[in-house]
Amino acid sequence: MSTAMSQNRGLGAAIWDYLTTVDHKKIAHLYLVAGGLFFLIGGLEAMLIRIQLMRPDNDFISAGLYNEMITMHGTTMIFLAAMPLIFALMNAVVPLQIGARDVAFPFLNSLGFWLFLFGGILLNVSWFTGGAPDAGWTNYAPLSTTSAGHGVDYYVMGLQISGAGTLIGGINFLVTIVNMRAPGMTYMRMPLFSWASFVTSALILFAFPALTVGLFLMMFDRMFGSVFFDTAAGGNAIIWEHLFWIFGHPEVYILILPLFGAFSDIFSTFSKKRLFGYSAMVFATVLIGFLGFMVWAHHMFTVGMGPIANSIFAVATMAIAVPTGIKIFNWMFTMWGGNIRMTSAMLWSVAFIPSFTIGGMTGVMLAAAAADYQYHDTYFVVGHFHYVIVGGVVFGLFASLHYWWPKMFGKVLNEKLGKLAFWPFFIGFHLTFFIQHFLGLMGMPRRYWVFLEGQGLETGNIISTAGAFLMAIGTIIFLVNVVYTSVKTEKVSGDPWDGRTLEWSIPSPPPHYNFVQTPLVRGLDPLWVEKSEGKKGMTPAEPLGDIHMPNASILPFMMSLGLFIAGFGFIYQVDDKGWLALVFIGMGITLGSMLIRSLKDDLGHHIHKADLEKDIEKGAGK
Amino acid sequence: MANHSNMTQQQDEFVKKQHKEEMKQQVISFALMILFTFIAFGMVILDIGSIFLIPTLLLLAVVQVLFQLYYFMHMKNKGHDMVAVMMYGGLGVAILTIITFTTIIWW
Amino acid sequence: MSHEDVLNPKQMPHDPEKATLEGKNKFLAFWFFLGGETVLFASLFGTYLALNRSTSGENTPEHLFGLELVFIMTMLLLTSSLTSVYAMYHMKNNDFRKMQLWLGITVALGLAFLGFEIYEFVHYIHEYEFTFRSSAFGSAFYTLVGFHGGHVLFGLSWIVALMIRNSKRGLNLYNAPKFYIASLYWHFIDVVWVFIFTVVYLMGVV
């Protein structure tokens, strides 16, 4: 059915195809495009912040708008750019790396994407309806509960919807990795990216429910008159802070771990060496995930939790430097003595090591609770977390995109343009954020709309703004590269990098069913094992036969659309109860779609052996 | 062929017997759960003013829940390793959360 | 052999809920989801424990809670947990009619529980003017117990939908996992209730 449709089709059919797709490779495209767009929006917000802080007493944007900018920059970058881009990579790569034909729940995979997208759109609609959220991305009460207008309501509903999507995605990848591995792909033979995706998904599973509850309480306080965070009525504002950071700290490991995994694969491939200390790397990944849940209160040292609590969380935080250090050394030992190729992917990865290490060092500085009283809420903190998030996550995303672009789209990104994008971004990044540590130590507080003249903050801020422009230039060159590549370059083979793992054993982009025959895995770096024995590809683990594939469905889109509509109803019923109609309509659409999904059998379809043989003639096998 | 179906029949009976055995255990655990509930309510209604009262109530609840998880929800059966990992993972975060909310929120 | 035949074998396997890959996936995913739900309810319990002394006026836990009602509700839910175990027992023995019967009893017990809960809330609101908005304790109490009640309602709708949908065609390998995870959900609801009656009600009146 779907193969017949994919032959002569117009634009409308292509759009319908993407709206209903349950194919993990197409969902990866959707995540990439949506996440990329939000990344640009978040970047634009960052530029406006830096222009405002270019000189003392600037009045480029108003104070209120500035608050909206910082809030939306943080929220967008974390929830709507970094998370979906990571899900794009996980969708594109994990099933291929473990030798699966699809994820465990293709339908839920699609639902996860549409929930994220509609949540993100809902959040950004606030710009046009009287003001975006303005209580910071951490949305602390009582600032958030007393914020006028509907901005914070959009924050609550938008994140609630997209958070549900993330949770669904996390469970999906957990089950995929546990149940869908190819024969012989034991846990200790999984590529590091798959391992990291597994740990990240577990973190999502345990971290996001805390955010869900926090957002519900915030919603009840703002929209339904409860008093959780209202101290006048016996409420307690610290509850929000704890719930937010019980989620929020694991969240930063959710962001960085998959890219640690990606770097491991990239270093190994481009050094032509097996990853140094594979089992130590796995252990360190799990340990970081585990410790990630015990450190959240280091964001709250100045709240007044008492010296005992502060000490415990300080020590636990510093402990995370140990497994992270293991990783840093193992990456360097992987490169040591290797046959290194400095491709764009490798360039980003190599640049990541010192950049991230600086962020890690300032992290240990911040973990010292007593010293944190000085650093807290200054630009030192801003410098620190941008060093780990840009120097780690964004560098990682660029590296991964260069590395897996051929697998996703069948074309290699232009290497010259890739390197041309790297240098301004890399230099700009250090210019922007390194100086911010010193601005912070000089006493410049974060989240302030203006700084004053004559306090020695001018030079640092203008350097920082100049760096931000360089980063923007780097990003634009990358986009040019994407456009240039998609119109120009010729298609590549399935294995452009002389890869080591399973995804490189199949064509680029892979056929709809990924593997004609499920491969038999005979060791770590399975493709390399076969290559070193002189074979061209993987040994199949099964005879050629019919392949069972899931059916496409519009229901995930409808479910998410329903929640999107209901979101508006919840936000505006405060003003006029008539808006509750939207809640009923929206929830009706969502619950109705769920009922249809539950009642209507979806048995999937088969791709027949004869069709597969035709595909093999065209080259799908190798 | 006949031999084969005979085998499966025997196997079938064996499995049914196993199910029955399991059901017996489940009824016993149900009886214990009811008993624990009675003890818990009884201790509170009879107003036993002991410092051990609240720990005992919590202990009874935990044991009940373990019965529920291991017998009613079959976590004792094989094939539940990953299930146990994720349930205990969730439980770990849950315990940390509860400790936090009873100790370091200002009062 | 078509997919239809695969899902309707001549002889049902002994663990029909885990006989197909889809079934295995559902089984595992649902357990993982329950792991996440554990954190969700822990956050609600934590909030409740942080706020349960922030009462206003006379409406304290000791004053409000009546243990007789809670005891009846506990017995109802506990028994419904056992009846759903019976339903799964018959599912494993491939006895569809008996499974439906026991699920029906489970639903009836669940409905009774929900009825008592609604009665309890209405009683508090009308007799004591104790509402969601009257104090932080009120907000936390209704949110925690209400979230549980919402789970009961969702579980009931889910089980009823499955019973109606499959009433004519009986058990097969496609719907067996669905019945099984619905029963897991039902047990989990009981797990949460055990802590609610202990922490909220019993410890509330001590």
From TrEMBL, chain A:
Documented EC number(s): 7.1.1.9
Domain Cytochrome oxidase subunit I profile: 10-522
GO terms (BP aspect): aerobic respiration; electron transport coupled proton transport; respiratory electron transport chain
Recorded GO CC terms: plasma membrane
Transmembrane intervals: 30-51, 71-94, 106-128, 154-180, 192-220, 243-263, 275-296, 308-333, 345-370, 385-405, 417-442, 462-484, 554-572, 578-596
Pathways involved: Energy metabolism; oxidative phosphorylation
InterPro entries in the cross-refs: Cyt_c_oxase-like_su1_dom, Cyt_c_oxase-like_su1_sf, Cyt_C_Oxase_1, Cyt_c_Oxase_su1_BS, Cyt_c_oxidase_su1_bac
Primary localisation category: membrane
Role according to the record: Cytochrome c oxidase is the component of the respiratory chain that catalyzes the reduction of oxygen to water. Subunits 1-3 form the functional core of the enzyme complex. CO I is the catalytic subunit of the enzyme. Electrons originating in cytochrome c are transferred via the copper A center of subunit 2 and heme A of subunit 1 to the bimetallic center formed by heme A3 and copper B.
Sequence similarity: Belongs to the heme-copper respiratory oxidase family.
Protein name per its UniProtKB record: Cytochrome c oxidase subunit 1
Organism: Halobacillus andaensis
TrEMBL record, chain B:
Keywords: Cell membrane, Membrane, Transmembrane, Transmembrane helix
Topology of this chain in the membrane: Multi-pass membrane protein
Chain segments annotated as transmembrane: 27-46, 52-73, 85-106
A Pfam family reported for this protein in Swiss-Prot or TrEMBL: COX4_pro
Superkingdom classification of source: Bacteria
Cell compartments where the protein resides: Cell membrane
UniProt GO cellular component terms: plasma membrane
Stated name of the protein: Cytochrome c oxidase subunit 4B
InterPro entries reported for this sequence: Cyt_c_oxidase_su4_bacillaceae (IPR014257), Cyt_c_oxidase_su4_prok (IPR005171)
Gene of this entry: ctaF
Organism classification: Bacteria, Bacillati, Bacillota, Bacilli, Bacillales
UniProt KW Transmembrane helix keyword: yes
UniProtKB/TrEMBL annotation, chain C:
InterPro entries in the record: Cyt_c/ubiquinol_Oxase_su3, Cyt_c_oxidase-like_su3, Cyt_c_oxidase_su3-like_sf, Cyt_c_oxidase_su3_a-hlx, Ubiquinol_oxase_su3_dom
Membrane topology type: Multi-pass membrane protein
Keywords assigned by UniProt, alphabetized: Cell membrane, Membrane, Transmembrane, Transmembrane helix
Highest taxon of the lineage: Bacteria
Molecular-function GO terms, alphabetical: cytochrome-c oxidase activity
Membrane-traversing stretches: 28-49, 69-89, 101-119, 139-164, 184-204
GO BP terms, alphabetized: aerobic electron transport chain
Domain Heme-copper oxidase subunit III family profile, first and last residues per copy: 1-205
Subcellular location: Cell membrane
Pfam families on file: COX3
GO cellular component, one term: plasma membrane
Similarity comment: family membership: Belongs to the cytochrome c oxidase subunit 3 family.
Protein name per Swiss-Prot or TrEMBL: Cytochrome B oxidoreductase
Organism of origin: Halobacillus andaensis
Gene that encodes it: ctaE
